[in-house]
Amino acid sequence: MLRRGLGYHRLGAAHRLRLDRALTPPRRRLLALGGAGLFGVFAVLPHPLANLGQLASSGVLITIAAAAGIWLAPRAGLGTPIIDAALSGQPFAGRLRAIAGLAIGLGILAALAVVALDVAVLAPLLPRATPATPAPPLWTGALAALYGGLTEEILLRYCVMSLFAWLLTKIVRGPAAYWGAIAGAALLFGVGHLPATATVLPLTALVVTRAIVLNGLAGVAFGWLYWRRGLEAAMVSHGSANLILHVAVRGIGA
Questions:
Q1: Distance CA 72, CA 158 (A)
Q2: Which residue range forms the structural domain that includes residue 236?
Q3: 58-70 tens-digit pLDDT
Q4: Domain presence at residue 211
Q5: Residue 25 is assigned to a structural domain of this protein
Q6: Model-level pTM?
Q7: Residue 3: inside a domain, yes or no?
């Protein structure tokens, strides 16, 4: 039986594509990833049954992103080894344990680095925030961890970073192509948080820079994990970082 070993990420794109197709039919992967991404949206959407239109539009976007990632990732030397192992009936619990420590640890470090940089450098330069609504309860931060770890990683890493990596590997040889893809996806990750930032602060040049730098810093960590350990490691790391930022830090400050 074909198996994905520890050297899976070192395989050439063509070999990896054949291996992925042999082990996991694309439709099964699309169902798993699309369902995971939609679950993340469902977790954070207020009254999801009353917002079926928004849920449906999000579902379409996630499905397109997941389908794009399924096509692009193996061609760029990237992938979802643990999900694929589970879908193809191979043992996967050991693989999940193997990446959990690194993914969680890097997520915690990224969150602490974001907090330290913001508190020490960026936040003192900003005007006072004026939230339009009271702060949500802490348990909603756990739901945000699901959205970040599942939905955002499918959109930003599996789709966007895979696209950048696929394009750059045609132009640049070696790790530089992947670092370029990591940086590009991290930049868009930061830009994607500007609408949320605008609800509490006017979007001045400093505020925009802060949002992009802080989110981009974490995005680089998640992108590196996607490259070196697979999408699942990025998902676990992103979820861990969100738990620190949206639950632990808020709880200490409450």
A1: 8
A2: 8-253
A3: 999 999 999 999 9
A4: yes
A5: yes
A6: 0.85
A7: no
